[in-house]
Amino acid sequence: MQLAVLGGFVMAGMAPLLHRWFGERTPLVMALLPAALAVWLLARWPAIAAGEVLLLEWAWVPGLDITLSFYLDGLAWLFAMLITVIGSLVLVYTGDYLRGHRDLPRFLVVLTAFMMSMLGLVLADNLVTLFVFWELTSITSFLLIGFNHGDLSARRAAQQGLYVTAGGGLALLAGFVMLAMAGGSWSLAELTARGDALRDHALYLPLLACLLVGAFTKSAQFPFHFWLPSAMAAPTPVSAYLHSATMVKAGVYLLARLHPALGGTDAWTLSLSLVGAFTMLTGAFLAIHHTNIKKLLAYSTVMALGTLTMLLGLGTPGALVAFVAFLLAHSLYKGALFMVAGILDHETGTKDVTHMGGLRRVMPRTAMVAAVAALSLAGMPPLLGFVGKELMLESALGAEHYRLPVVVLAFVASFLTLAVAAIVALRPFFGTLRRTPRTPHEAPPGMLAGPALLAALSLLLGLAPGRLDDLVMATVAGLGAVDHEVHLSLWHGINLPLLLSLASLVLGLAVWHRWDRLRARLARLRPLMARGPEAGYEALMAGMVAGAEWQTRMLQNGHIRNYLVVTLLTLLGLVGHALFFRHAPSLDVPVEAYLHEAVVAGLMVAGAVAACVMRSRLAAVAAVGIMGFSIALVFVLFSAPDLAITQLLVETLTVILLVLVLFRLPRFATLSTPTERARDVVVAGLSGLMITLLMLSVLAGERLPRISDYLIANSQPQGHGHNIVNVILVDFRALDTLGEMFVLALAAIGVLAMLRFHAGDHEVGRSLPREHDDG
Amino acid sequence: MVRSGTLILSVAARLLLPLQLLFSLFLLLRGHDEPGGGFIAGLVASGAFALYLFAYGGRAMHAMLKVSPRDLIGFGLTLGVLSTLPALWQGEPFFTAQWWTIPLLDFKASTPLLFDVGVYLVVLGSVLTAITALVDTDREDDA
């Protein structure tokens, strides 16, 4: 399985190559991979249904206790199945949606990479591995939202999605670290078994808070919900796949996965059920403001995600059953509806439902699919959505805390959702045929196959919900409710949830009927809405830019003398503090020096003084050179030939570089005022004094065991070399050296960039071809 | 700014370049046991090319070098990273040094040597990149 996921990444990278071989059929070919994975998962079903847990172990970084182990139980199986099945359908759909698009290969690369990241996320057993896949989904989502990168709004939406989810990712990382500390393991399987110890741990509240921020940002919970509707700038296959069926459920998945480990406390119940219920209401309420079909659906996704979070918060076995049923139902109908929205956009050229009408005559099959999927969204029998909604209302009625507000919010959300379903399914297809930017035709089969299959599943599973009993039971076991008997059915008799459903049907249809007038009224709320969380995000971003500008002006102002002063003062402050307050500096060091050593030291001082007072640049360079060569002499005196040679060579090359630079500099002039020079003298003098004191204290202090003894002893036996300096560089500390090689390379690139591309030279491209005539 | 130099410089540069390059290779190969090593050898080689550049100009130096200095940096970094991989092949931790003796020459081949060659190329490439960039901007100003 791990090989399949890693292989999937390789295949993602090969998409451009495949596109060369298979042309327009590439998405179909690539759909074979998730389809094959789905078959593999199906073959594991008997074992999973029997309550077995597959642990596929694979060491990754054994030294850090990081494994690439996969953990397949009912919960992971359900998510993996959704990812692979909807993934293959979306790939087939993409084949027609982006037919002939110039950037199809790029799209396929990122989409397949996302698919594999998501699969890795739901299967991972190790927290670090899970986090890596989690971040990969954020990055691929960023690339997919910004797919039309020529469009400013798409770029902004992509950035917004990335900042919100990756910012939450940071909190999540902190939460994971605390979780591993508190639970004593990085393995999810082991952590879920240690629930009691975790709940009583002192770190429980902080780690829960961090994990919740991570999960809430990913799953677009209030007040982070705003990035999801913006993400609708992505091509529709992406919206259908990432932003309704899979990625946004990653946060919910994580909460579900951690439910046995962390759930059941007051903090958990309170935060999840209230945030979830409020998100549910926000999503449903904001949905009816919009006429853009994708935004309508996006807000109803926010509502669904809120519902899922709320159900996890309620945490009773019944609520967990409702969670699974609602999750499955939502993935099926929302995936289908988004694909239908894509068809409408593709065929009519508009996303605005008020501009469409009567399309059922030109595209009857699409209308049929849309109707079935929308009925499921509305929670109408006999669709799976009905089963999910009934269970949801039942669990809300069974809530142990805050029953009344939860029930009221759930009820309001359910009738507003019904109105959304009616708007999406009735507006475009009924009424008189309206003129749209493009003349609509029936959708091509590739685009219709996906939504049709998903809608059909919604219907079939709705008619026979008993077929899901095993799946729900296995999944609920993964959520902590082991051995809970599940019997889903369409008809529960006349009870309170059914009556609530009937009431919501009436109210929902009323909202739909008066939608246009309602929208006009709601428009008056705009100024209030403009102060929502999104405004907060914008303010935060603007503040960050302003802060960056300020610190650039203050610190990074391009004047090397200021950099030097700031650096030296910081050094003085920090070293001085440590030296005087932590250790009493001692000057009690017998200083013995031979005459020749004193001469060399005197040369250095003379060189430094001369460099400062010289009136000619060439003379100053020569004076600095004297200092450098004296340092080389010191190395020779203390028998470090390697350092001496290096110092000499560096001095030589410095002279060469200076010669090249000197001609380009303006005439030597005194630009600083006497006060500034006095300040510089003080700073320089203090720094010198401080370093001297530091060196003396180091020499006077107690001797720690010296590393050089070890190096001298082991250089030949272990490093096979007599030159200890070289053995350190290329063997003992080779990783450091490698890092420094990269630093050197970056410095060279920096020099090149600085010299080639002058500030204000906007025609950067012009100077590029030059390098070829040089080489 | 940099034009072909005097007769003495030209002749000296032509004679010294091969000698200096040989010397740098010598320093590179003996570096593990005697003073020397990739960093020093790289500096010596850059000095050699810099001298040649002063004598004959940037174009001649590029012709002599055949590859762009920036490519040298790339080769060097790649070699440095590649030299860490044989350890993984042997099932040992990343970066563990591997030693082989080539029998006929009685020469110790090793991943640290490969790594040192990488250092050599990066140093040479970086210094030459900086120098040629400076020389090229000079020429732009003259034009």
What do you see in this structure?
The complex is a heterodimer of chains A (775) and B (143). Chain A has 775 residues and is mainly alpha-helical. Chain A contains 34 helices and four strands. Chain A has helices spanning 2-22, 26-49, 74-97, 104-123, 127-145, 152-183, 188-192, 195-200, 204-218, 227-230, 236-245, 249-262, 266-287, 293-314, 317-348, 364-378, 384-397, 403-426, 445-463, 469-478, 496-513, 515-522, 526-529, 533-554, 560-582, 595-613, 617-637, 641-662, 674-700, 707-719, 724-732, 734-756, 764-767, 770-774, and strands at 54-56, 59-61, 66-67, 70-72. In chain A, the strands form two sheets. Chain A has a two-stranded antiparallel sheet with strand order 1-4. In chain A, strands 2-3 form a two-stranded antiparallel ribbon. The longest helix of chain A has 32 residues, at 152-183. Chain A is elongated and about 105 Å long. Chain B has helices at 7-30, 38-56, 58-65, 69-82, 85-89, 111-142; strands at residues 99-102, 107-110. In chain B, strands 1-2 form a two-stranded antiparallel ribbon. Chain B is elongated, with a radius of gyration of 18 Å. Chain B starts with 6 loop residues before the first helix and ends with a helix. The mean pLDDT of chain B is 83. Chains A and B meet through helix 28, helix 31, helix 32 and helix 34 of A and helix 2, helix 3, helix 4 and helix 6 of B.
